[in-house]
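Students often ask why inverse folding is considered easier than folding. One informal answer: many sequences map to the same fold, so there is more than one right answer. In these notes we will look at a single instance of the problem. The structure comes first.
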Protein backbone atom coordinates (compact mmCIF):
# COMPACT_ATOMS: atom_id res chain seq x y z
CA UNK A 1 0.00 0.00 0.00
CA UNK A 2 1.46 3.35 -0.93
CA UNK A 3 1.21 5.70 1.97
CA UNK A 4 1.38 9.42 1.56
CA UNK A 5 2.39 10.63 4.98
CA UNK A 6 1.31 14.29 5.10
CA UNK A 7 -2.21 13.92 3.63
CA UNK A 8 -2.86 11.04 6.05
CA UNK A 9 -1.41 12.73 9.12
CA UNK A 10 -3.38 15.94 8.78
CA UNK A 11 -6.90 14.39 8.85
CA UNK A 12 -5.72 12.07 11.61
CA UNK A 13 -4.51 15.01 13.67
CA UNK A 14 -7.67 17.05 13.12
CA UNK A 15 -9.90 14.11 14.04
CA UNK A 16 -7.74 13.31 17.07
CA UNK A 17 -8.26 16.85 18.35
CA UNK A 18 -11.99 16.64 17.63
CA UNK A 19 -12.02 13.33 19.48
CA UNK A 20 -10.62 14.78 22.71
CA UNK A 21 -13.88 16.50 23.87
CA UNK A 22 -15.92 13.56 22.54
CA UNK A 23 -13.68 11.23 24.54
CA UNK A 24 -14.31 13.29 27.67
CA UNK A 25 -18.04 12.57 27.42
CA UNK A 26 -17.31 8.89 26.69
CA UNK A 27 -15.16 8.65 29.81
CA UNK A 28 -17.98 10.16 31.89
CA UNK A 29 -20.56 7.69 30.52
CA UNK A 30 -18.65 4.51 31.39
CA UNK A 31 -18.87 4.55 35.24
CA UNK A 32 -22.65 5.07 35.15
CA UNK A 33 -23.16 1.39 34.26
CA UNK A 34 -23.04 -1.12 37.10
CA UNK A 35 -22.65 -4.87 36.99
CA UNK A 36 -25.92 -6.80 36.74
CA UNK A 37 -25.92 -10.45 37.81
CA UNK A 38 -29.59 -11.32 38.35
CA UNK A 39 -30.73 -14.55 39.99
CA UNK A 40 -31.95 -17.12 37.42
CA UNK A 41 -35.63 -16.40 38.25
CA UNK A 42 -35.19 -12.62 38.13
CA UNK A 43 -36.42 -11.17 34.84
CA UNK A 44 -36.11 -7.57 35.99
CA UNK A 45 -34.38 -5.03 33.76
CA UNK A 46 -30.72 -4.14 34.38
CA UNK A 47 -30.09 -0.97 36.40
CA UNK A 48 -30.37 2.30 34.48
CA UNK A 49 -27.31 4.54 34.14
CA UNK A 50 -26.81 6.08 37.56
CA UNK A 51 -24.38 7.57 40.03
CA UNK A 52 -22.17 4.84 41.58
CA UNK A 53 -22.24 6.69 44.95
CA UNK A 54 -25.90 7.56 45.54
CA UNK A 55 -27.64 5.68 42.66
CA UNK A 56 -29.31 8.85 41.34
CA UNK A 57 -30.43 8.00 37.82
CA UNK A 58 -28.67 10.06 35.16
CA UNK A 59 -31.22 9.86 32.37
CA UNK A 60 -30.35 9.34 28.74
CA UNK A 61 -31.20 12.85 27.63
CA UNK A 62 -28.80 14.20 30.23
CA UNK A 63 -25.91 12.30 28.75
CA UNK A 64 -26.06 14.08 25.45
CA UNK A 65 -23.14 16.48 25.47
CA UNK A 66 -24.08 20.13 25.52
CA UNK A 67 -27.54 19.65 26.95
CA UNK A 68 -27.94 21.90 29.99
CA UNK A 69 -29.85 19.32 32.07
CA UNK A 70 -26.80 18.13 34.01
CA UNK A 71 -24.14 20.70 33.23
CA UNK A 72 -22.21 20.03 36.44
CA UNK A 73 -21.93 16.39 35.52
CA UNK A 74 -20.58 17.06 32.04
CA UNK A 75 -18.26 19.85 33.08
CA UNK A 76 -16.88 18.64 36.39
CA UNK A 77 -18.00 15.00 36.54
CA UNK A 78 -20.13 15.70 39.63
CA UNK A 79 -23.34 13.77 40.25
CA UNK A 80 -26.43 16.02 40.01
CA UNK A 81 -27.85 14.18 43.06
CA UNK A 82 -25.07 13.99 45.64
CA UNK A 83 -22.55 16.39 44.00
CA UNK A 84 -19.76 13.86 44.50
CA UNK A 85 -17.24 13.34 41.74
CA UNK A 86 -17.78 10.31 39.49
CA UNK A 87 -14.35 9.14 38.35
CA UNK A 88 -14.33 8.98 34.52
CA UNK A 89 -12.75 6.15 32.54
CA UNK A 90 -9.39 7.37 31.24
CA UNK A 91 -9.28 4.42 28.84
CA UNK A 92 -12.47 5.49 27.11
CA UNK A 93 -11.48 9.16 27.19
CA UNK A 94 -8.27 8.46 25.23
CA UNK A 95 -9.47 5.56 23.08
CA UNK A 96 -12.07 7.79 21.38
CA UNK A 97 -9.55 10.31 19.93
CA UNK A 98 -7.27 7.42 18.94
CA UNK A 99 -10.15 5.67 17.13
CA UNK A 100 -11.09 8.96 15.43
CA UNK A 101 -7.46 9.50 14.35
CA UNK A 102 -7.23 5.95 12.96
CA UNK A 103 -10.41 6.51 10.98
CA UNK A 104 -9.02 9.77 9.58
CA UNK A 105 -5.65 8.27 8.65
CA UNK A 106 -7.11 5.20 6.94
CA UNK A 107 -9.72 7.23 5.12
CA UNK A 108 -7.10 9.63 3.78
CA UNK A 109 -4.53 6.96 2.87
CA UNK A 110 -6.87 4.16 1.85
CA UNK A 111 -8.28 3.13 -1.51
CA UNK A 112 -10.74 5.34 -3.36
CA UNK A 113 -13.62 2.84 -3.35
CA UNK A 114 -16.80 4.31 -1.88
CA UNK A 115 -16.20 4.44 1.86
CA UNK A 116 -18.95 4.26 4.45
CA UNK A 117 -18.41 7.98 5.11
CA UNK A 118 -16.68 9.71 7.98
CA UNK A 119 -19.84 10.43 10.06
CA UNK A 120 -20.66 6.70 10.21
CA UNK A 121 -17.02 5.90 11.06
CA UNK A 122 -16.96 8.41 13.91
CA UNK A 123 -20.23 7.08 15.33
CA UNK A 124 -18.71 3.61 15.29
CA UNK A 125 -15.52 4.86 16.94
CA UNK A 126 -17.46 6.57 19.74
CA UNK A 127 -20.12 3.96 20.46
CA UNK A 128 -17.60 1.15 19.93
CA UNK A 129 -15.20 2.54 22.53
CA UNK A 130 -17.91 3.13 25.15
CA UNK A 131 -19.41 -0.35 24.63
CA UNK A 132 -16.00 -2.06 24.65
CA UNK A 133 -14.97 -0.46 27.94
CA UNK A 134 -18.38 -0.98 29.58
CA UNK A 135 -18.54 -4.63 28.50
CA UNK A 136 -14.97 -5.29 29.66
CA UNK A 137 -15.71 -3.71 33.06
CA UNK A 138 -19.21 -4.90 33.91
CA UNK A 139 -20.03 -7.53 31.24
CA UNK A 140 -22.94 -5.58 29.80
CA UNK A 141 -23.84 -4.04 26.45
CA UNK A 142 -26.55 -1.67 27.70
CA UNK A 143 -29.65 -1.26 25.55
CA UNK A 144 -29.60 2.48 26.19
CA UNK A 145 -26.34 2.64 24.22
CA UNK A 146 -26.88 -0.09 21.61
CA UNK A 147 -30.47 0.50 20.52
CA UNK A 148 -30.30 4.28 19.76
CA UNK A 149 -27.16 3.57 17.70
CA UNK A 150 -29.26 1.65 15.14
CA UNK A 151 -31.36 4.52 13.74
CA UNK A 152 -28.39 6.90 13.85
CA UNK A 153 -26.12 4.39 12.08
CA UNK A 154 -28.79 3.69 9.43
CA UNK A 155 -29.14 7.42 8.82
CA UNK A 156 -25.37 7.91 8.51
CA UNK A 157 -24.97 4.85 6.26
CA UNK A 158 -27.72 6.38 4.13
CA UNK A 159 -25.64 9.54 3.98
CA UNK A 160 -22.59 7.42 3.03
CA UNK A 161 -24.61 5.95 0.16
CA UNK A 162 -25.20 9.37 -1.37
CA UNK A 163 -21.87 10.90 -0.38
CA UNK A 164 -20.29 10.15 -3.83
CA UNK A 165 -23.05 12.28 -5.40
CA UNK A 166 -22.47 15.12 -2.93
CA UNK A 167 -18.74 14.96 -3.64
CA UNK A 168 -19.41 15.16 -7.38
CA UNK A 169 -18.13 11.64 -8.11
CA UNK A 170 -19.14 10.13 -11.45
CA UNK A 171 -19.81 6.79 -9.76
CA UNK A 172 -23.26 7.77 -8.47
CA UNK A 173 -24.86 6.59 -5.23
CA UNK A 174 -23.29 3.52 -3.61
CA UNK A 175 -26.49 1.45 -3.75
CA UNK A 176 -24.52 -1.81 -3.98
CA UNK A 177 -22.78 -1.08 -0.68
CA UNK A 178 -26.08 -0.12 0.96
CA UNK A 179 -27.66 -3.41 -0.10
CA UNK A 180 -24.79 -5.56 1.24
CA UNK A 181 -24.75 -3.49 4.47
CA UNK A 182 -28.46 -4.15 5.08
CA UNK A 183 -28.01 -7.82 4.17
CA UNK A 184 -25.04 -8.00 6.57
CA UNK A 185 -27.20 -6.51 9.33
CA UNK A 186 -29.96 -9.09 8.83
CA UNK A 187 -27.54 -12.00 8.38
CA UNK A 188 -25.36 -11.31 11.41
CA UNK A 189 -28.35 -10.65 13.70
CA UNK A 190 -29.86 -13.96 12.53
CA UNK A 191 -26.56 -15.82 13.01
CA UNK A 192 -26.04 -14.59 16.59
CA UNK A 193 -29.68 -15.19 17.41
CA UNK A 194 -29.30 -18.77 16.20
CA UNK A 195 -26.18 -19.31 18.33
CA UNK A 196 -28.00 -17.88 21.33
CA UNK A 197 -31.12 -19.95 20.60
CA UNK A 198 -29.13 -23.21 20.38
CA UNK A 199 -27.02 -22.55 23.49
CA UNK A 200 -28.25 -19.53 25.51
CA UNK A 201 -25.56 -19.92 28.20
CA UNK A 202 -22.80 -19.49 25.61
CA UNK A 203 -23.66 -15.95 24.63
CA UNK A 204 -25.26 -12.87 26.10
CA UNK A 205 -28.53 -11.53 24.72
CA UNK A 206 -26.73 -8.18 24.51
CA UNK A 207 -24.30 -9.69 21.99
CA UNK A 208 -27.27 -10.70 19.80
CA UNK A 209 -28.69 -7.16 19.92
CA UNK A 210 -25.31 -5.68 18.99
CA UNK A 211 -24.68 -8.10 16.11
CA UNK A 212 -27.03 -6.42 13.62
CA UNK A 213 -25.28 -3.08 14.05
CA UNK A 214 -21.89 -4.66 13.38
CA UNK A 215 -23.29 -6.58 10.39
CA UNK A 216 -24.45 -3.27 8.94
CA UNK A 217 -20.95 -1.78 9.19
CA UNK A 218 -19.02 -4.88 8.12
CA UNK A 219 -21.42 -5.56 5.24
CA UNK A 220 -20.78 -2.17 3.61
CA UNK A 221 -17.65 -3.49 1.87
CA UNK A 222 -19.29 -6.82 0.95
CA UNK A 223 -20.59 -9.89 2.73
CA UNK A 224 -17.12 -11.49 2.76
CA UNK A 225 -16.17 -8.94 5.42
CA UNK A 226 -19.08 -10.06 7.63
CA UNK A 227 -17.90 -13.67 7.47
CA UNK A 228 -14.22 -12.83 8.08
CA UNK A 229 -15.06 -10.35 10.84
CA UNK A 230 -17.17 -12.96 12.63
CA UNK A 231 -14.41 -15.56 12.27
CA UNK A 232 -11.90 -13.04 13.63
CA UNK A 233 -14.20 -12.34 16.61
CA UNK A 234 -14.37 -15.96 17.73
CA UNK A 235 -10.70 -16.63 16.91
CA UNK A 236 -9.52 -13.69 19.04
CA UNK A 237 -11.88 -14.36 21.95
CA UNK A 238 -10.82 -18.06 21.99
CA UNK A 239 -7.13 -17.08 21.86
CA UNK A 240 -7.71 -14.61 24.70
CA UNK A 241 -9.52 -17.23 26.81
CA UNK A 242 -6.79 -19.83 26.22
CA UNK A 243 -4.10 -17.29 27.12
CA UNK A 244 -5.89 -16.49 30.39
CA UNK A 245 -6.23 -20.20 31.16
CA UNK A 246 -2.55 -20.85 30.39
CA UNK A 247 -1.65 -18.01 32.76
CA UNK A 248 -3.85 -19.57 35.44
CA UNK A 249 -6.15 -16.54 35.52
CA UNK A 250 -9.25 -18.27 34.16
CA UNK A 251 -10.95 -21.65 34.03
CA UNK A 252 -13.28 -23.13 31.42
CA UNK A 253 -16.17 -21.68 33.45
CA UNK A 254 -14.87 -18.10 33.42
CA UNK A 255 -17.18 -15.75 31.52
CA UNK A 256 -15.29 -13.67 29.01
CA UNK A 257 -17.31 -10.83 27.44
CA UNK A 258 -17.59 -11.23 23.67
CA UNK A 259 -18.52 -7.60 22.95
CA UNK A 260 -14.97 -6.18 22.90
CA UNK A 261 -13.92 -8.86 20.37
CA UNK A 262 -17.03 -8.29 18.22
CA UNK A 263 -16.42 -4.54 18.20
CA UNK A 264 -12.66 -4.80 17.67
CA UNK A 265 -12.98 -7.21 14.75
CA UNK A 266 -15.70 -5.07 13.18
CA UNK A 267 -13.54 -1.95 13.50
CA UNK A 268 -10.69 -3.77 11.71
CA UNK A 269 -13.02 -4.83 8.88
CA UNK A 270 -14.60 -1.38 8.60
CA UNK A 271 -11.22 0.38 8.45
CA UNK A 272 -9.10 -2.04 6.45
CA UNK A 273 -11.63 -4.14 4.55
CA UNK A 274 -12.06 -7.91 4.53
CA UNK A 275 -8.96 -9.37 6.28
CA UNK A 276 -9.31 -12.58 4.21
CA UNK A 277 -8.39 -10.54 1.12
CA UNK A 278 -4.97 -9.86 2.68
CA UNK A 279 -4.13 -13.56 3.05
CA UNK A 280 -1.63 -14.92 0.51
CA UNK A 281 -2.82 -17.38 -2.10
ZN1 LIG B 1 -24.60 10.73 43.35
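Output (designed amino acids):
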Amino acid sequence: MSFDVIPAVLPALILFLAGVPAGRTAGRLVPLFARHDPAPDDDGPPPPPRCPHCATEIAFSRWLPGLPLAPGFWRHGRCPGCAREIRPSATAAWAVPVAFALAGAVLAAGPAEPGIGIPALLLFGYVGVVLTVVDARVHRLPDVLVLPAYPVALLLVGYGTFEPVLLGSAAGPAYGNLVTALAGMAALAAFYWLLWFIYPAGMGWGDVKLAGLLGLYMGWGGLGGVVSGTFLTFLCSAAFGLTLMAAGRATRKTQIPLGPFMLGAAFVVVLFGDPAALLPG
